[in-house]
Write a structure and sequence with these properties.
Elements (H helix, E strand, L loop, with lengths): L4 E4 L5 H11 L4 E6 L2 H13 L5 E4 L5 H15 L5 E4 L14 H29 L2 E6 L2 H5 L5 H21 L4 E8 L5 H4 L3 H8 L10 H12 L10 E4 L7
Parallel strand pairs: 1-2, 1-4, 2-3, 4-5, 5-6, 6-7
Helix pairs in contact: 1-9, 3-4, 4-6
């Protein structure tokens, strides 16, 4: 069988790295999308030292033109079209809504929601034509329950759910599945730098009594991306330690 090609936006971050590693475990050719070239090259070398042979690709997910260009370049250097797309890139610009500026709102909606269109549109036709594809959108527990101080982030991540369910219906008969994963608090290197007292307050709200590991998100992505995942579409997998149940 031809090797599947996977693109993970925000692939060099904590969760992104775990997703890349999990997809590599399925035997896929994995491309990590990045915005900072210096950091991406350092990450690529670290991964190589750990035994992973990842490609890296610059892409500005807020720009449709940049996403189109990235897809074209990936097809050229990988020798085929993208089979698995993980829309993982995202940012936060937190603040109470009464003080939130348009720039905070616009930056988060553009990066976290518009990016799903920008990145998916250039790959969907190839998937439909091949009658095989996996699109996995990373949302958040706060897109399910809302979060004070995150009106922008919660709105964007909630929008991902509607996008997933609508697109899943369009791709279903052509073998293209579209699903969402909604992580809760995940102990990425960035989160690990938060003050210990604040971490303990967060953990106190989580029924399982700990934060999630990036590898747990990676494993879930691999489950949905696998050849055997073709009967799961339009679904959301909540991975939050029981913090929000519905």
């Amino acid at each position: 069988m031809t090797q599947r090609i996977a693109l993970v936006t925000g692939g060099t971050g904590g969760i992104g790295s775990a997703i890349c590693e999990a997809l590599a475990g399925l035997g896929m050719k994995v491309v990590a999308g990045y915005s900072n070239e210096e950091k991406a090259k350092a990450w690529q070398q670290e991964q190589k030292d750990a035994g992973f042979d990842f490609e890296i690709q610059h892409v500005d997910v807020t720009s449709y033109e940049s996403c189109q260009q990235a897809v074209t370049e990936i097809k050229e250097k990988c020798g085929g079209s993208i089979d698995v797309l993980v829309n993982n890139a995202g940012i936060t610009r937190d603040g109470f809504f009464k003080k939130m500026g348009w720039d905070q709102w616009h930056a988060v909606l553009t990066t976290n929601l518009d990016s799903a269109f920008n990145m998916t549109r250039p790959v969907i036709e190839d998937m439909l034509e091949k009658k095989w594809g996996r699109i996995i959108n990373i949302s958040s527990v706060n897109g399910e329950k809302g979060q004070m101080g995150q009106a922008n982030y919660s709105a964007a991540k909630a929008g991902i759910h509607g996008f997933t369910k609508a697109l899943a219906q369009e791709g279903a008969r052509n073998g293209v599945t579209v699903n969402t994963i909604s992580p809760g608090y995940i102990l990425t290197p960035m989160v690990a730098k938060i003050d210990e007292a604040i971490q303990q307050k967060i953990v106190a709200q989580i029924p399982v009594g700990r934060m999630g590991q990036p590898s747990e998100i990676g494993r879930a992505v691999a489950f949905l991306a696998a050849e055997e995942g073709g009967y799961i579409t339009g679904s959301n997998l909540s991975i939050n330690g029981g913090q929000h149940m519905h």
